[in-house]
């Protein structure tokens, strides 16, 4: 069964450094998302992406964040200058046209020190 | 703003039935989804209700009442593997999901 994959599984970085989190969505999906989950808290929406552009973004998704689909398979989240409060699990998700379920990847645990 | 309320924790024994309620207060509501998340794992889709009524998928069912801004997830014939967190999530325009705080279900033998 196809699944969303994410790399790396765990990323440790120093405050102020740039990080890129990578995702490979399911191949015939057209909608892509990033969510984050701080340990012990709820899942929070960051951004949705469709037709090579951002559909919607949350207040969390400020100028430090950007997304890109550099080729036909990868979908990346970049954080330009990480802060301690960016430490969280970051989930990529994808979905099909006209379908309600979103398929989540296993997540990347980002630790900012 | 958008807010979804669900109980923080429920404990039940194997074979029992558990109902997890979710209330929402939002505009631009499209539908209510339910996701399961085991510790350390990713959210996994369980069900979605756009219209009032009951949706049944095996041992799990979900209900929505738009007039009451209320839904629930029903877990039947509980098994040990059902121990997990369950999140209701509102679907809005653009397929954005806004998650509730989650209900931790603990199944005891």
Spatial shape of chain A: globular
The helix content of chain A, as a percent range, equals under 10%
- Principal-axis shape of chain B: globular
Total beta-strand segments of chain A: 11
Biggest interface pair, counts: A-B, 22 and 24 residues
**What is the structural class of chain B?**
mainly beta
Quaternary class: heterodimer
Give the H and E element order of chain A. EEEEEEEEEEE
- Provide the gyration radius of chain B in Å: 13 Å
Percent range for helical residues of chain B? under 10%
Calculate the mean pLDDT score of chain B and round it: 93
From N to C, what is the helix and strand string of chain B? EEEEEEEEEEE
Number of strands of chain B: 11
Estimate the strand proportion of chain A: over 45%
Gap between N and C termini of chain A: 37 Å
Helix segment count of chain A? 0
Strand count, sense and barrel status of the largest sheet of chain A are: 7 strands, mixed
Describe this entry's structure for a reader.
- The complex is a heterodimer of chains A (113) and B (109).
- Chain A has 113 residues and is mainly β.
- In chain A, 0% of the residues lie in helices and 50% in strands.
- Chain A is built from no helices and eleven strands.
- Chain A has strands spanning 5-7, 10-13, 19-24, 31-37, 43-50, 53-57, 65-68, 75-79, 88-95, 103-104, 108-112.
- In chain A, 33% of the residues are buried.
- Chain B has 109 residues and is mainly β.
- In chain B, the strands form two sheets. In chain B, strands 2, 4, 5, 9, 10 and 11 form a six-stranded mixed β-sheet that branches. Chain B has a five-stranded antiparallel β-sheet with strand order 1-3-8-7-6, with no helix packed on it.
- In chain B, a hairpin with a 6-residue loop joins β4 (31-37) and β5.
- The radius of gyration of chain B is 13 Å and the shape is globular.
- Chain A binds chain B through residues 31, 33, 35, 41-45, 48, 50, 55-56, 91, 95, 100-107, and chain B through 31, 33, 35, 37, 41-45, 48, 50, 87, 89, 91, 93-102.
